[in-house]
Q: What sequence folds into this?
């Protein structure tokens, strides 16, 4: 069977103005935003790579094979031309991006990871999504201090050297902002999976289990049922973490990310890693942990990060990121150029443990097929899944539905709204639908 070709999502070829236009059209509910995007790209002639890919070889042989290119005959560049390597110049459009018009300032804002362009489960550090409440800093590690106080026998201050001398652990975990997919509570709001699901990333984190440090300070682990974590930036980010999670050994005081030090945007030189819990609790620029006997009810857990329920009350401390998944190929903004074979694939995750199973539908949820889970399948980590599909050129609605090891099944929008209403910002883990139209354009849709 013929293998289908795919045109990439608009982020891969549009410039800033083009993206502004596409996103504005999506917000206005104009369903022609994709056509607009491609018209824009054609007008600015920004798609030579896509054209070249699509061109079939002439009958007298492919010049890409027959004519030896310079790189096969000449001398390449020397070692260490670049002391810290960069991606290929052909990949420069793969970037984390802010959603145009989403926030009023660019310091209290968010950039979304380009999920539609990534493979496997690890997010390259330079593409990790960012969420800052008051801008980011590149803090001098020699002057950074980390204090433990509260219900402890001996309060202590650690330098980075103190922390990095201790035995460390390295673990792969996802981090998802509680507000991920939050724009979609009411209806379709953004065109591509970078913006619907891109407040999500996954890294190997290295650090010291917080429990080790608490024990060094003689913390009261019986009456001290909570800890408060505090950041050193101007946002005064403070969050309550239950001691049960800390005692499990999973909460890390981390300095490493994907084999090197944390990136400044992600909390250099020190951040809390709280596996399975929403991003806001992963306090960056971590400077203090206090042990206490009750939740601290800080601004970021009473005014923000609460869920407005249909009865008008707010749900608090709903920190765990429930089981969720998204198909990244095909996804919004991409175009299927041929009928034939496609590998549907995407990401699944759960804040409660491992993903047990992912089902994929191509007919809007009437029929489901079990997807392959690619290895490794790790706890509180992204899992890559895929399923084979032959597109017959007819409209198709692609969905994925994840189940975690507790047996919890990712809900439909109808099921989620029955419990949560649609007044929330946070914790939207509904099944995502992508409509493949007859002309091959893939659109973000929600089924009634
Ligand atoms: N000190 C500090 N920590 C913080 C924040 C912040 O603004 N300041 N933002 C929080 C939020 S809301 C999220 S989603 C994550 C985002 O982490 P990232 O920027 O590394 O993706 O960091 C959390 N920790
Ligand atoms: Mo967040």
A:
């Amino acid at each position: 069977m013929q293998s289908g070709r795919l045109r990439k999502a608009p982020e891969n070829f549009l410039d800033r103005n083009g993206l502004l236009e596409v996103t504005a059209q999506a917000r206005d509910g104009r369903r022609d935003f994709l056509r607009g995007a491609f018209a824009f790209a054609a007008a600015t002639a920004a798609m030579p790579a896509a054209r070249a890919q699509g061109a079939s070889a002439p009958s007298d042989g492919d010049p890409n094979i027959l004519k030896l290119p310079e790189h096969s005959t000449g001398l390449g560049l020397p070692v260490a031309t670049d002391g810290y390597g960069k991606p290929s110049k052909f990949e420069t459009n793969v970037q984390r991006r802010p959603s145009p018009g989403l926030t009023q300032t660019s310091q209290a804002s968010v950039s979304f990871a380009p999920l539609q362009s990534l493979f496997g489960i690890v997010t390259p550090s330079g593409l990790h999504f960012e969420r800052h409440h008051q801008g980011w800093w590149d803090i001098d590690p020699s002057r950074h201090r980390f204090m433990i106080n509260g219900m402890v026998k001996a309060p202590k201050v650690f330098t980075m050297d103190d922390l990095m001398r201790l035995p460390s652990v390295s673990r792969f975990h996802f981090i998802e902002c509680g507000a991920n997919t939050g724009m979609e509570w009411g209806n379709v709001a953004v065109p591509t999976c970078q913006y619907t699901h891109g407040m999500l990333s996954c890294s190997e984190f290295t650090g010291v289990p917080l429990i080790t440090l608490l024990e060094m300070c003689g913390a009261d682990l019986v009456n001290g049922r909570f800890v408060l974590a505090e950041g050193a930036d101007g946002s005064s980010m403070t969050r309550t973490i239950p001691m049960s999670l800390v005692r499990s050994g999973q909460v890390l005081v981390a300095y490493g990310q994907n084999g090197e030090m944390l990136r400044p945007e992600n909390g250099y030189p020190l951040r809390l890693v709280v596996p399975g819990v929403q991003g806001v609790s992963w306090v960056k620029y971590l400077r203090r942990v206090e042990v206490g006997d009750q939740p601290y009810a800080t601004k970021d857990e009473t005014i923000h990060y609460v869920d407005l329920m249909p009865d008008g009350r707010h749900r608090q401390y709903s920190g765990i990121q429930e089981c969720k998944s998204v198909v990244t190929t095909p996804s919004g903004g991409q175009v299927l150029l041929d009928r034939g074979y496609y590998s549907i694939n995407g990401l699944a995750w759960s804040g409660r443990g491992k993903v047990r199973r992912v089902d994929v539908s191509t007919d809007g949820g009437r029929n489901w097929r079990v997807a392959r889970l690619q290895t490794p399948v790790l706890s509180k980590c992204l899992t890559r899944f895929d399923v084979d599909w032959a597109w017959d050129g007819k409209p198709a609605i692609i969905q994925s539905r994840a189940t975690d090891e507790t047996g919890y099944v990712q809900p439909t929008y109808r099921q989620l709204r029955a419990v949560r209403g649609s007044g929330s910002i946070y914790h939207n883990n509904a099944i995502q639908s992508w409509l493949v139209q007859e002309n091959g354009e893939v659109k973000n849709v929600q089924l009634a």
About this structure: The pocket of MTE (ligand 1) is lined by residues 128-133, 175, 177, 231, 233, 235, 237, 265-267, 279-280, 282-285 (CB under 6 Å). The chain has a mean pLDDT of 93. Residues 157 and 256 are 20 Å apart (CA to CA).
